[in-house]
Amino acid sequence: MPSLDFIKILPQPPFEQEVLTDACWALSYLSDGTNDKIQAVIEAGVCLRLVELLLHPSPSVLIPALRTAGNIVTGDDMQTQAVIAADIIGPLVRLLQTAEFDIKKEAAWELLNATSGSNPNQIKEWYNNYFEFKGSALMDAP
Hints:
The chain is mostly helical. The chain has helices at 17-30, 35-43, 47-53, 59-73, 77-85, 89-98, 101-116, 120-140. It is built from eight helices and no strands.
Protein backbone atom coordinates (compact mmCIF):
# COMPACT_ATOMS: atom_id res chain seq x y z
CA MET A 1 0.00 0.00 0.00
CA PRO A 2 1.36 3.46 -0.85
CA SER A 3 2.42 5.84 1.89
CA LEU A 4 -0.33 7.93 3.44
CA ASP A 5 2.00 10.64 4.76
CA PHE A 6 -0.12 13.27 3.04
CA ILE A 7 -2.90 12.56 5.55
CA LYS A 8 -0.83 14.07 8.34
CA ILE A 9 -1.67 17.44 6.91
CA LEU A 10 -5.42 17.12 7.51
CA PRO A 11 -6.52 20.70 7.19
CA GLN A 12 -6.05 22.78 10.32
CA PRO A 13 -7.77 26.12 10.87
CA PRO A 14 -8.07 28.34 8.99
CA PHE A 15 -9.44 26.23 6.17
CA GLU A 16 -12.40 26.06 3.90
CA GLN A 17 -14.98 23.65 5.23
CA GLU A 18 -15.31 22.00 1.83
CA VAL A 19 -11.63 21.05 1.89
CA LEU A 20 -11.97 19.56 5.37
CA THR A 21 -15.11 17.67 4.36
CA ASP A 22 -13.39 16.23 1.28
CA ALA A 23 -10.34 15.22 3.35
CA CYS A 24 -12.57 13.44 5.86
CA TRP A 25 -14.41 11.56 3.10
CA ALA A 26 -11.06 10.55 1.59
CA LEU A 27 -10.02 9.10 4.96
CA SER A 28 -13.32 7.29 5.21
CA TYR A 29 -12.81 5.64 1.83
CA LEU A 30 -9.17 4.81 2.59
CA SER A 31 -10.07 3.14 5.89
CA ASP A 32 -13.00 1.16 4.51
CA GLY A 33 -11.75 -2.35 3.97
CA THR A 34 -9.08 -4.69 5.18
CA ASN A 35 -7.10 -4.31 8.37
CA ASP A 36 -4.07 -3.37 6.24
CA LYS A 37 -5.93 -0.30 4.97
CA ILE A 38 -7.09 0.58 8.48
CA GLN A 39 -3.54 0.18 9.80
CA ALA A 40 -2.16 2.49 7.10
CA VAL A 41 -4.61 5.21 8.15
CA ILE A 42 -3.73 4.74 11.83
CA GLU A 43 0.00 4.84 11.07
CA ALA A 44 -0.54 8.12 9.24
CA GLY A 45 -1.31 9.55 12.69
CA VAL A 46 -4.88 10.74 12.22
CA CYS A 47 -6.68 9.33 15.28
CA LEU A 48 -6.25 12.38 17.53
CA ARG A 49 -7.33 14.74 14.75
CA LEU A 50 -10.36 12.55 14.02
CA VAL A 51 -11.44 12.81 17.65
CA GLU A 52 -11.06 16.61 17.44
CA LEU A 53 -13.23 16.62 14.33
CA LEU A 54 -16.01 14.84 16.23
CA LEU A 55 -16.50 18.17 17.98
CA HIS A 56 -16.91 20.07 14.69
CA PRO A 57 -20.24 21.90 14.39
CA SER A 58 -20.94 20.90 10.77
CA PRO A 59 -22.59 17.59 9.89
CA SER A 60 -20.71 17.64 6.57
CA VAL A 61 -17.50 17.16 8.57
CA LEU A 62 -18.93 15.07 11.41
CA ILE A 63 -20.40 12.30 9.26
CA PRO A 64 -17.22 11.37 7.36
CA ALA A 65 -15.14 11.76 10.55
CA LEU A 66 -17.52 9.38 12.34
CA ARG A 67 -17.42 6.95 9.41
CA THR A 68 -13.62 6.96 9.45
CA ALA A 69 -13.45 6.32 13.19
CA GLY A 70 -16.17 3.68 12.72
CA ASN A 71 -14.10 1.97 10.05
CA ILE A 72 -11.11 1.92 12.39
CA VAL A 73 -13.07 0.22 15.18
CA THR A 74 -14.08 -2.56 12.80
CA GLY A 75 -10.42 -3.56 12.66
CA ASP A 76 -8.55 -5.73 15.10
CA ASP A 77 -8.22 -5.08 18.85
CA MET A 78 -5.06 -2.99 18.44
CA GLN A 79 -6.74 -0.81 15.84
CA THR A 80 -9.77 -0.31 18.06
CA GLN A 81 -7.38 0.57 20.87
CA ALA A 82 -5.95 3.38 18.71
CA VAL A 83 -9.21 5.34 18.85
CA ILE A 84 -9.80 4.46 22.51
CA ALA A 85 -6.34 5.89 23.25
CA ALA A 86 -7.28 9.04 21.34
CA ASP A 87 -10.07 9.61 23.91
CA ILE A 88 -12.97 9.10 21.56
CA ILE A 89 -15.51 8.30 24.29
CA GLY A 90 -16.22 11.90 25.35
CA PRO A 91 -17.00 13.22 21.87
CA LEU A 92 -19.16 10.19 21.05
CA VAL A 93 -21.17 10.57 24.24
CA ARG A 94 -21.58 14.29 23.58
CA LEU A 95 -22.87 13.52 20.08
CA LEU A 96 -25.31 10.95 21.46
CA GLN A 97 -26.62 13.57 23.89
CA THR A 98 -26.79 16.67 21.71
CA ALA A 99 -26.57 15.96 17.98
CA GLU A 100 -29.27 15.62 15.37
CA PHE A 101 -30.72 12.15 14.78
CA ASP A 102 -28.52 11.24 11.78
CA ILE A 103 -25.36 12.10 13.73
CA LYS A 104 -26.59 10.19 16.78
CA LYS A 105 -27.23 7.18 14.54
CA GLU A 106 -23.63 7.29 13.24
CA ALA A 107 -22.22 7.66 16.79
CA ALA A 108 -24.34 4.76 18.04
CA TRP A 109 -23.21 2.61 15.08
CA GLU A 110 -19.61 3.35 15.98
CA LEU A 111 -20.08 2.41 19.64
CA LEU A 112 -21.87 -0.78 18.63
CA ASN A 113 -19.06 -1.79 16.27
CA ALA A 114 -16.41 -0.87 18.81
CA THR A 115 -17.88 -3.05 21.53
CA SER A 116 -19.27 -5.95 19.49
CA GLY A 117 -15.90 -7.32 18.42
CA SER A 118 -13.72 -6.05 21.23
CA ASN A 119 -12.06 -8.16 23.83
CA PRO A 120 -13.58 -7.97 27.34
CA ASN A 121 -10.87 -5.59 28.58
CA GLN A 122 -11.67 -3.09 25.83
CA ILE A 123 -15.38 -3.28 26.55
CA LYS A 124 -14.60 -2.57 30.20
CA GLU A 125 -12.43 0.38 29.12
CA TRP A 126 -15.25 1.79 26.96
CA TYR A 127 -17.63 1.37 29.89
CA ASN A 128 -15.29 2.96 32.44
CA ASN A 129 -14.42 5.84 30.13
CA TYR A 130 -18.08 6.47 29.45
CA PHE A 131 -18.92 6.79 33.13
CA GLU A 132 -15.77 8.80 33.79
CA PHE A 133 -16.88 11.21 31.05
CA LYS A 134 -20.48 11.29 32.31
CA GLY A 135 -19.27 12.04 35.83
CA SER A 136 -17.05 14.90 34.69
CA ALA A 137 -19.86 16.26 32.49
CA LEU A 138 -22.16 16.31 35.52
CA MET A 139 -19.51 18.08 37.59
CA ASP A 140 -19.17 20.74 34.89
CA ALA A 141 -22.92 21.35 34.66
CA PRO A 142 -24.12 24.72 35.95
